């Protein structure tokens, strides 16, 4: 295992920039906001809010895909990056196929993702387009010869999304529980995006713990020999059970991929949601939120107050616990419609958000604040 440890000076330049104008804009953050962001200059120290990146093997993203690191200044100056504006300020989510075992679960699951994304991209509105079946997209599909599961073709889905993209969209993302492939010669892909078109499609199929296990439900149920254009194979097709881990992984993928739509590239500075990931274990290792450098990139794109965004995220994680009367009522009526939000896997992130808010709301005498 190798720790990628940048010097405090390197991290400061990556966040603040040596350019006078950008450094001046940085000083417009409140003292508390700067304290929080500058926690990132000393990653991995005892009690630090941020950690350095660790490379565990050659199959991790950074050794496998060398990329130019993107600091705040190069992000800011990228002529191709897209910024939301008054007429393009909505993120649209298009569900393709079912999630969970019943329609009501799909609706609830996607609504949780919508609310989470809206807190994450605080200040933008996130809307759901009415869910579509695989048949409605008219996409090509196949059975993967190794895993024997159904896969749908990303290029066809992107074409479908392009036609459906509303006028006020900042971007449109398609999400599905069905596995994806980008071309015949590829085994699979987690997702594919077109940044210039502001759209992407992502699958959560491989975030099911049992995907790689031998009893992956669909594989055993029937060996499919589907005919192109006969979408009946997707009726009642296995989708992963909704769990806290699946929700956590879905939230991470969604926000990482939407983050790219703003022109934020893979993070090579600190442990961060924008780190590239080559496999599930690496993706699980990523934290749920941005490092300070990527946070500043999003903040200048959207213009939110950092503390308000953290509060919205915390609210999303705590919401169900506060809604106990609703839960009790649902149990009393034996309502099948009530699904409690499974946020157990978000516990560490919740504590982290509280610590960030302690600094922003001056509940702790932060060493950095008392020095100045
Ligand atoms: Zn990425
Ligand atoms: Zn980052």
Task: Write structural notes for this entry.
- Strand 5 and strand 6 form a beta hairpin.
- The two termini are 37 Å apart.
- The strands form three sheets. The chain has a five-stranded mixed beta sheet, sandwiched between helices. Strands 5-6-8 form a three-stranded mixed beta sheet.
- It has 16 helices and ten strands.
- The chain is α/β, with parallel strands linked by helices and 372 residues long.
- It is globular and about 65 Å long.
- It has two domains: 167 residues, no CATH class; 173 residues, Collagenase (Catalytic Domain), CATH 3.40.390.10.
- Bound molecules: zinc ion (ZN) (2 copies).
- The site of one zinc ion has 4 residues, from helix 10.
- GO terms for molecular function: metal ion binding; metallopeptidase activity.
- Pfam families: Peptidase_M54.
- Its cofactor is Zn(2+).
Q: What is the CA-based Rg, rounded?
A: 21 Å
Second-tier CATH architecture of the largest domain:
3-Layer(aba) Sandwich
* Strand element count: 10
* Widest sheet: strand ordering: 4-3-7-10-9
Outline the biggest β-sheet.
5 strands, mixed
Number of helices: 16
Ends apart, CA distance between termini: 37 Å
Fraction in beta strands:
5-15%
What's the shape? globular
| Helical residues, percent | 40-55%
Structural class: alpha/beta
CATH topology of the largest domain: Collagenase (Catalytic Domain)
* CATH H-level homologous superfamily name of the largest domain: Collagenase (Catalytic Domain)
Bound molecules: zinc ion
Number of domains: 2
- The quaternary state of the protein chains shown equals single chain
Unreliable stretches (pLDDT < 50, length at least 5) are none
Q: What is the CATH C-level name of the largest domain?
A: Alpha Beta
Mean pLDDT: 88
């Amino acid at each position: 295992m190798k720790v990628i440890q940048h010097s405090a000076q390197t991290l400061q330049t990556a966040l603040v920039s040596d350019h006078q104008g950008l450094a001046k804009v940085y000083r417009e953050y409140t003292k508390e906001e700067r304290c929080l962001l500058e926690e990132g200059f000393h990653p991995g120290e005892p009690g630090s809010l941020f950690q350095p990146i660790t490379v565990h093997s050659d199959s991790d993203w950074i050794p496998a895909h060398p990329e130019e690191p993107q600091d705040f200044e190069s992000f800011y100056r990228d002529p191709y990056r897209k910024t939301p504006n008054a007429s393009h300020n909505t993120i649209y989510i298009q569900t393709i196929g079912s999630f969970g075992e019943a329609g009501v679960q799909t609706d609830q699951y996607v609504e949780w993702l919508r609310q989470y994304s809206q807190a994450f991209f605080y200040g933008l509105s996130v809307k759901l387009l009415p869910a579509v079946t695989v048949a409605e997209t008219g996409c090509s599909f196949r059975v993967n010869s190794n895993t024997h599961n159904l896969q749908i073709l990303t290029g066809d889905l992107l074409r479908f999304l392009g036609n459906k993209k509303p006028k006020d969209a900042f971007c449109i993302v398609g999400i599905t529980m069905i596995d994806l492939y980008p071309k015949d010669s590829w085994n699979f892909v987690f997702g594919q995006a077109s940044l210039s078109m502001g759209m992407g499609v992502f699958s959560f199929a491989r975030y099911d713990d049992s995907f790689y296990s031998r009893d992956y439900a669909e594989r055993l149920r029937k060996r499919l020999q589907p005919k192109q254009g006969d979408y009946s194979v997707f009726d009642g097709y296995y989708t992963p059970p909704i769990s806290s881990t699946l929700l956590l992984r879905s939230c991470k993928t969604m926000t990482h991929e939407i983050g790219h739509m703003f022109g934020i590239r893979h993070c090579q500075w600190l442990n961060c949601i924008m780190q590239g990931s080559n496999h599930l274990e690496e993706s699980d290792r990523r934290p749920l939120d941005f490092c300070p450098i990527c946070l500043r990139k999003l903040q200048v794109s959207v213009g939110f107050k950092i503390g308000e965004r953290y509060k919205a995220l915390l609210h999303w994680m705590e919401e169900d616990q506060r809604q106990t009367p609703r839960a009790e009522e649902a149990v009393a009526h034996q309502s099948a419609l009530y699904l409690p939000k499974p946020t157990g896997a978000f516990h560490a992130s919740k504590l982290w958000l509280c610590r960030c808010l302690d600094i922003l709301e001056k509940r702790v005498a932060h060493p950095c604040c008392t020095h100045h």
